[in-house]
Amino acid sequence: MSAAGTRRAGVCGWPVAHSRSPLIHGYWLKTLGIAGAYERFAVPPEGFAAFAASIGRDGLVGANVTVPHKEAAFAACDRLGADAQSSGAVNTLWREGGLLCGDNTDVAGFLAALDAGAPQWRGATGGAVVLGAGGAARAVVHGLISRGVERVVIVNRTDERAQALAARFGQATSAAPWRELPRQLESADLLVNTTTLGMADQPALAIDLAPMKASAVVADIVYIPLATPLVEAARRRGLAAVEGLGMLLHQAAPGFERWFGARPTVTPELRALVEADVLAAGKERS
Ligand code: ATR
Fold it and tell me: Residue 13 sits in which domain range?
């Protein structure tokens, strides 16, 4: 605890100014009446080890970890949760009995957002296509397999990365080259974008959703803009579409509960608050 006994947590990244985590945790601290603090920690790669060592001191009870530190956080931990172990990345840190502990709440965050945004996906997804093969794809693929999805096809610009990821997850997963996407989409019940395509200032993810079944669900984990070109294309095609913001909101909850001891809720009011903030930042940019 700090001198005043206030519990502190925060988000550690480089850069970190864009992070909406302080807004989310600040909302929960306020609405739950907890006298804690949630800060931004701008930490360059060479400073990460010292930051991790400071967890557990001066009231700092833990931290979220964002780009580019998720793999360094994984390596720094003395103890890992199951989702961190399976995905090879850590986004939530805390200390227990002197040991640095970490888990990856992106997995549960993605699944909770999908459950909330398109509940029909449950039990109806035999096959999924995941675009991308980075850290976010690992969390998504692991989450889908953990929910019993039978076939996950990973499609990535760099095919070797898709193949490596598929090999890591075993029988339920396979890799397909980008040019085969139309054929893969024909049989998919779910399409998830985990690439950075469609993000503000990045090229759009320009793929044709025409081959997809009418019952298919499309999810994007990009949340700036709130409705990406992919989400808009899915809606025009009449498909259920899940925006990326839900994952951001839901991945925050387990860390908050661990650090501050109360289970927070992703309310419509919180979603509206973060949506307004993302929209306002978009207007500033344009
Ligand atoms: P994260 O940890 O957030 O997933 P990452 O590991 O940098 O980030 O992965 C970014 C993903 O977006 C990768 O799958 C990347 O494809 P490559 O493996 O070929 O680099 C994908 N990506 C980024 N820019 C892309 C582009 N212009 N076209 C296609 N895919 C792109």
Answer: 7-105+251-268
pLDDT digits (tens, 9 = 90+) for 27-79: 999 999 999 999 999 999 999 999 999 999 999 999 999 989 999 999 999 99
Task: Tell me which of 90, 195, 205, 230 to substitute to probe ligand 1's pocket, judged by most ligand atoms within 8 Å of the beta carbon.
Answer: 195
Residues 42 and 135 both lie in one domain: no
* pLDDT tens digits along 108-147: 999 999 999 999 999 888 999 999 998 899 999 999 999 9
The CATH number assigned to the domain holding 52 equals 3.40.50.10860
Q: What is the pTM of this model?
A: 0.94
Residue list, ligand 1 pocket, CB within 6 Å: 132-137, 156-158, 161, 194-197, 203
The reply to whether 134 falls in a domain is: yes
Assess if residue 12 is contained within a domain.
Answer: yes
Residue 188 and residue 167: Cα distance in Å, rounded? Answer: 20
Q: In Å, how far from its chain's centre is CA 183?
A: 27
Give dist(CA 28, CA 22) in Å, integer: 10
Q: Rounded to the nearest whole angstrom, what is the distance from the C-alpha of residue 161 to the centroid of ligand 1? A: 10
pLDDT at 4: 56
Give 203 Cα–ligand 1 centroid separation in angstroms: 12
